Amino acid sequence: MTTSARPIGDVILALEHISLSFGGVNALSDISFDVREHEVRAIIGPNGAGKSSMLNVINGVYRAQQGTILWRGQHRHGMNPHDAAAAGIARTFQNIALFKGMSVLDNILTGRNLKMKVGFLEQAIWIGRARREELANRAKVEEIIDFLEIQHIRKTPVGRLPYGLQKRVELARALAAEPSLLLLDEPMAGMNVEEKQDMCRFILDVNEQYGTTIVLIEHDMGVVMDISDRVVVLDYGRKIGDGDPAEIRGNQAVIDAYLGVAH
Amino acid sequence: MEERLDTFPRLLLHHARKRPDAPATREKDLGIWQTWTWRQVADEVRALACGLAAEGFGRGMHLAIVGDNRPRLYWAMIAAEALGGVPVPMYQDAPAAEFVFVLNDAEIVYALVEDQEQVDKLLEAKPQVPTLAHIYYDDPRGLRNYEGVTSFERLLERGRDFDRAHPGFFDEQVALGRGDDVSGMLYTSGTTGRPKGVRQTHDAFIAAARGSAEFDRLQPSDNVLSYLPMAWVGDHLFSYAQWLYVGFTINCPESGDTVMIDLREIGPTYYFAPPRIFENLLTQVMIRMEDAGPIKRWLFRHFIGLARRCGAEILDGKPVAPGDRLHYALGNLLVYGPLRNVLGMSRIRVAYTAGAAIGPDLFRFYRSIGINLKQLYGSTETCAYVCLQPDGGVKLDSVGIAAPGVELRIADSGEVLVRGPMLLKEYYKRPDATAESIDAAGYFHTGDAGYVDEGGQLRIIDRAKDVGKLATGALFAPNYIENKLKFFPHIKEAVAFGNGRDRVCAFINIDVGSVGNWAERRGLPYSGYTDLAAKPEVYGLIRECVETVNAQLAAEPGLADSQVRRFLILHKELDPDDDELTRTRKVRRGFVEEKYGVLIDALYSGRKVQHVETVVKFEDGRSGLVAADLRIEDAATLPAQPAKAA
Q1: B338 DSSP β-pair partners
Q2: Among partner residues A154, A194, A208, which is closest to B31 by beta-carbon distance?
Q3: Of A37, A179, B176, B368, which has the maximum CB count within 10 A?
Q4: Nearest residue, CB atoms, A5 vs list B30, B141, B144
Q5: pLDDT by residue (tens digit) across A182-226?
Q6: What is residue A84's DSSP assignment?
Q7: Searching chain A, which residue's CA lies closest to the CA of residue B143?
């Protein structure tokens, strides 16, 4: 298999000296790293290391008390989630956040929300512009359904699907926004080996076919080492390693963090 | 002058002239059914044939075709034939290692495949296949950075350029074709030994298509769903030869997982499926009924009971009491109609099953709810065309009368012999095998043992070579016993042993879907197949099935000795990837016997538990080890019933 067929480009996202605390707890302290265009960037670390907080800072759910975010050359002190989505950043969640009672198709369509320009009155009448727009959105959604091979559950309510498929639907919804940066929070948690393999293939396919830059949090070291171009390692809210998989594998601080040493 | 419609490309051009705007092919793509008319298909085939010609493909060459049922793969077969070439469809789910044999045997230079998965497998096989030089793919996804493979679009483009430069070329090539040219090479599934390439002519397949189409009055307005492996002779007859002979519409499903949804959307009028599919459909219905509310369950049981009593007779137009008839009509409104709709079979005029024996109860179930399911008999060597059941003359245990143009004879040994226009021309590069299977009088030896019953219908007992004798001297027909076992939705596969032994013992594979659902409803936790198969409760469930079969066998003349004395539930599912089944899912008896010799010894030595370790291959080609301590249980048997004297 070829990894990352598209040449890795310039830095599109740089996090500089990010610190985040909740009351007296320092979730993140002085963290800096960057993400290059078209790469698969993994964030790893033991439980409570601050990985999800880091993603939340990137797409604006949390606002860092210190530090800046450089997104495509523009300095931002913080984003809000809506700005982040509008800027082309989409994400999935550690605990699946789908509408359980809605069909797979409708769930994925919600990912097109920002692409819908027509007002709701026009949509209700469904002629002309509204009709064209809906057809275009549906076509895009169908392309994603085809891409992720979930045609057979198109009309199934999400709540009835097994966990692995729900994860895939969540990925589909994130892709529906046609993001340039995709944040995946533990996309493979709780999956069996086969489901993990499928998910890996889809992530690499997304990266290759759409050129989407991917930042993912993952616990499975095998997966991380296989599919990432670069890895950043957090522990107790501090960055303890940053580099390609081979470097990380040999990094003593990382080994200690995972195997445990006397502090 | 009457045009000669003796090759498939000519038939295509005929339909393109006669019904240019009628739908020829449909495929569900991106959630919408796309339609191609006969004229469009003819255009595509023309461009494709010219493209292949521009690439150097020509008369007598073989074109490997690998993939799920895609319109373009069907068209590619016509394109290859238009140039005088021979399409060689291959089983798309076989791993690369299995491709190697067929690719080398057929000396494949050109291959047209569906997608990245198949391209990867061909590239993996390529170092061992020196002839393979050109690979074309239909679906470009994931293939952007591959080198040395060509997209279908590029091939069409080359074809259109070539066609402009040589405008008369395509028609000349089609005119060169003759009815006795080889039109396709299908490989046998290889229940024993290596697969053999069966070479069939246009004449043979057209004769089979004509005979069966007239037999069942197929119309251009008919619709079929093309979802069975393209390498299987059944699909080649139903979705290719008959399609081009009759001019009906073939519908390709969106993906392998959506077949049941697509079946409902299309509502085919003409349907073909091996028994396994009918079995799966029924299992699904039964599982859902178990989960339904008490009123629905009662309705279902009540009306299915009625249908069992008189449904098949009503379908056959036999006399039925008016009260039952009225009752059945109510059932049709409340249960059978909706059930047919759920199954996607509301519009079915004719449905066939073949490929393996179908359980009588299963068969009767479908007929009793008003689906005209019939059986046919044939093989790769006979274009799947030997016997057909006529409407109104359907029997549960026979496969029908000799089809139009087919001569049927039973040899002294009991083997079924056939002669007719649908016979194979030869096995490729195997004159020895050809000579062995076709005798001096032109009869093909089917290898099946059977007899013609009083109604003139052929009844197949078993594979001739599988039929043996128990040590007691009684007849032992393993398939017969296995099929009885497999009718239970809980049993997916069974292998019976007994040839030359004093009693019959069996391996059982449970059906995870059905038994899993059964276990869930009982709050029985399990982690996977191996765990579920070892549960004492599951053994109890299966023992009931085995004992029911024993009761049936005891009641049949001469079969009381075939009752299953001991059985075990295998710790893994028999799988074609482990060579235990063929690609068409028939048990490779000899192989299984050898591989699980230790288990057979345990069955016959009276041991209660046997430890076994088995290497399994995963879908990605890696292997692993499954180990288990298998329990062996006895099943109760009954004495032969007095009816035996009859």
Answers
A1: none
A2: A154
A3: B368
A4: B144
A5: 999 999 888 888 888 889 989 998 998 888 999 999 888 888 888
A6: H
A7: A209
A152·B141 Cβ contact <8 A: no
Rounded to a whole number, what is the distance in Å from the CA of A45 to chain B's nearest CA?
29
Beta strand B182-187 pairing with B150-151: unpaired
pLDDT band at B582 (very low <50, low <70, confident <90, very high): confident
* Longest pairwise C-alpha distance within chain A: 68
Q: Do B30 and A139 touch (CB under 8 A)?
A: yes
* Chain B residue numbers touching A204 (CB-CB < 8 A): none
CA distance, residue A240 to nearest chain B CA (Å) = 36
> What's the CATH number of domain B468-645, 1.20.1250.20, 3.30.300.30, 3.40.50.300, 3.40.1260.10?
3.30.300.30
Of B144, B261, B620, Cβ closest to residue A152: B261
Query: H or E element: which one contains A39?
Result: none
* Domain coverage including residue A157: 94-173
Asked if the ipTM is above 0.85, the reply is: no
Give B145's pLDDT tier (boundaries 50, 70, 90).
confident
B72-76, B554-558, B642-646: which range is least confident on average? Answer: B642-646
What residues of chain A lie within 8 A of the CB of B620, using their CB? 197
User: In the predicted model, is pLDDT for residue A79 greater than 80?
Assistant: no
At residue A5, the pLDDT reads: 55
Interchain CB distance below 8 Å, B30 and A208: no
Type of residue numbered A96: I
Residue B191: the pLDDT is: 61
CA dihedral A142, A148, A152, A153 (to 10 degrees): -90
Residue A33, min C-alpha distance to chain B (Å): 30
The answer to whether B325 and B317 have CB atoms below 8 angstroms apart is no
pLDDT, tens only, A53-65: 999 898 888 888 8
Looking at CATH, the fold of the domain delimited by B8-273 is given as Rossmann fold (3.40.50)
Residue recorded with tokens 């990094």: A251
Query: How many domains does chain A divide into?
Result: 2
Residues A147 and A128 in one domain: yes
Residue among A146, A151, A200 with most chain B CBs within 10 A, to mutate: A151
For residues B339 and B401, the answer to whether their CB atoms sit within 8 Å is no
Give A215→chain B minimum CA distance, Å.
Answer: 21
Structure tokens at B306: 């009625």
Our CA-based measurement puts residue B55 at a distance from the nearest CA of chain A, in whole angstroms, of: 28
Give B298-323 pLDDT, tens digit per residue. Answer: 999 999 999 988 988 888 888 889 99
Torsion sign, CA atoms B502, B551, B571, B487: positive
Distance of alpha carbon B376 from alpha carbon B394, whole angstroms: 10
Nearest CA in chain B to A147: B141
